Amino acid sequence: MTGRRLTLLLILLLAFVLRVHEIDAQSLWYDEGVTAQVARLGVGELARWTADDIQPPLYYLLVGGWLRFVPFGELTLRLPSAFFGLLLVPLLWALGRRLWDEGAGLLTALVATVSPLMVYYAQEARMYTLLLMWVSLAALAAVRWQVVRGRRAWAATFLYALAGLAAMYTHYFAGFALLALALYWLIMWWLNRRDGRGFVQWLLAHVLIGVGYLPWLPAMLHRFAVDRSYWSGTLKLGEALVDVGINFTTGATEVMLEKDAQVWLPWLGLATLLWMVAVGGGRRSRRQRPLLLLALWLFLPVAMILVLAYRTPKFNARYLMISWPAWALLAGGGINRLWQRRAHLPAAAAHLPGIARPLAFFSLMLVLVPATLGLRNWFYDDNFAKSAWREAITEMYRHRQEDEVALLVSGHAYPVFDTYLPPRFGVPRVRLPEMEILDVTQVLGWEETADALNRLAGQYGGLWLFRWQDEVADPAQVTRILLERWADSQPTPSFAYIGLDHYRFRPGVRFPSRPPFLLHGQDFADLLRLVGIEPTATGIWLYWQALAQNLPDLHVALRLRDARGQVLWQGDMRPVGYDFPTTRWQKGETYPVFIEVPEISRAARLSLQVYRAPGEQMVGQYELDVRVEG
Predict the structure, then answer these.
(1) Strands, DSSP E only, in 468-511?
(2) Per-residue pLDDT tens digits for 210-234
(3) In which element (H, E) is residue 591 found?
(4) CATH fold for domain 518-627
(5) Predicted pLDDT at 629
(6) Vertex 281, ends 275 and 283: CA angle to 5°?
(7) Which long-range contacts (CB under 8 A, 24 or more apart) does 244-249 make?
(8) In degrees to the nearest 10, what's the CA dihedral of 201, 203, 208, 214?
(9) Is this prediction's pTM over 0.85?
């Protein structure tokens, strides 16, 4: 066995160890709960479910087939992702070797092996490592097609079509990566061959993908048309690009704090530019044009997805993960060419003796050091843990009384709850709001929540409240406000990234269907109404109601003065807080907010001015006297 083959085996061994180490140590979180639920459905029901979901069915079918032969658990559910993530390493090695040489392939494999991002998703029961495997296989087929003829060219054509079609049935965003690969293939055909057979092969590969995807195309188009899991608004492109940069290079924010990752980002950005310069020349580079492939693969999907996401400010850097292999190849190829002193360095630096290898070593350290820090965080720092559903459900199950119910807010979190506590265990659970998939238009208000709690109080003696993504479903925290005020809170421990509260209902309790201390109602331009004000010894409750759907982003200027005119408190804010703009309010629902005023006097005067932001056009103003009783 040659030294380089032994090196590859050692890299693969390290990749295996990193991907299975502590793989079942953490709880499944919501997305993995969805995998657990969907993968165990029958084929027909699975197809119907995924047709209404945001992901196509192939990954679930593969995991479901695997689960038929192994006992269910965190380990077995996550092992397919680890397997696909492990296969990605030799695929990227082969790509680096094809584009440059063995050394570039080994360095690319090393980058993929130690990448905290790749380790993280290899330990998550989701489709991302499978997606990257298919896209990388398609890229390898496209690169191989450039240098083979005859039957081998046809084999590369069909391999590309198979991998591309599988990628499309794994994740909808695969199409953006395939577009980049299709352009690379077509440009290379034009530059090097321009023969009729080559064009037919290129065309056939993409026709096969298109025809093979026709059965699922209506489901994809319908999903994009009706998807309501995103807020309205616009994406902050600058912030999104920074998120993508730190995610690709350091694995932030999954395994590293954003502020720590941003320390590394400028240096890694400079290294990336250096690698692009390094891989741009050479005889083999002219034949394969790796920089063309990597530029298209790295930048085209990113640009197109950011344009698509511009009108939806909900964004996660993982949406762009299909371009990550291009960055890994750029790192491996660039470091290798610098080490071999084959880089085309800028003229100002080309005359400096020995500069290439120090640059190669320095840029390799820029990859390995933050990767090591990220892996340490992932394996040993609880601040980077997944949502602790397993631990929270265990706590509830051990201490639950027979007359208590589990309440899930948001209701769409039921897949992970049911994974750990299936209905056969006899623990009643209620979802609020009642929805299968996240819908940002289903926002809890006072009336709906009070009615639901009254129904529960009539059937049960207490409840366990599981709060996950409640900032989406219950941004005004109506559920907790009602329970804290009209039920008895019991002590519960805290858990990572999930809220757990325990309450006992008071005998004969009735949660008020309308807020206390109602006014006759003060309207502001037929947009919203102040329906109630409740002064307390520590502050004031305000109760707002939407009078129309699709409100503009309204703000309110508040000022509270005592009897002598001295300002006790003032501020400008969204009526119910920054994270719950009026653009998300539902017509007819009431939302509470508490204004803490530590030095409130028994008698004070409150003035409110409602205006549109950011133009600050006045909508209306109102003043009234408030009095703290007792």
Answers:
(1) 487-490, 499-505
(2) 999 999 999 998 887 766 666 666 7
(3) strand 590-596
(4) Immunoglobulin-like (2.60.40)
(5) 64
(6) 135
(7) 244/302, 244/317, 244/320, 245/269, 246/317, 247/117, 247/317, 247/318, 247/320, 248/117, 248/317, 248/323, 248/324, 248/327, 249/327, 249/367, 249/370
(8) 180
(9) yes
> Terminus-to-terminus CA distance in the chain, angstroms?
87
Give the pLDDT band of residue 362 (cuts 50, 70, 90): very high
The alpha carbon torsion through 30, 35, 41, 43 (nearest 10 deg) reads: 140
Question: Tens digits of per-residue pLDDT, 107-148?
Answer: 999 999 999 999 999 999 999 999 999 999 999 999 999 999
Mind listing the pLDDT tens digit for each residue in 154-176?
Answer: 999 999 999 999 999 999 999 99
3-state helix, strand, coil in the chain (%, to 5): 55, 15, 30
Least confident window among 231-240, 326-335, 416-425: 231-240
Angle of CA points 249, 254, 258, to nearest 5°: 65
Per-position DSSP letters for 83-110, written without gaps between them: HHHHHHHHHHHHHHHHHT-HHHHHHHHH
Give the CA angle between residues 189, 192, 195 to the nearest 5°. Answer: 60
Give me the residue spans of the domains in the chain.
3-384, 389-505, 518-627
DSSP letter at 412?
G
Copy the structure tokens of residue 478: 């109506």
- Which is it for strands 404-409 and 462-467: parallel, antiparallel or unpaired? parallel
Distance CA 446, CA 80 (A): 44
Reported as type and span, the H/E element at residue 391 is helix 389-399
What 3-state class would DSSP assign to 259? helix
How far, rounded to the nearest angstrom, does the alpha carbon of residue 223 sit from its chain's CA centroid? Answer: 18
Using one digit for the tens of pLDDT, what is the confidence trace for 437-467? 888 889 999 999 999 999 999 999 999 999 9
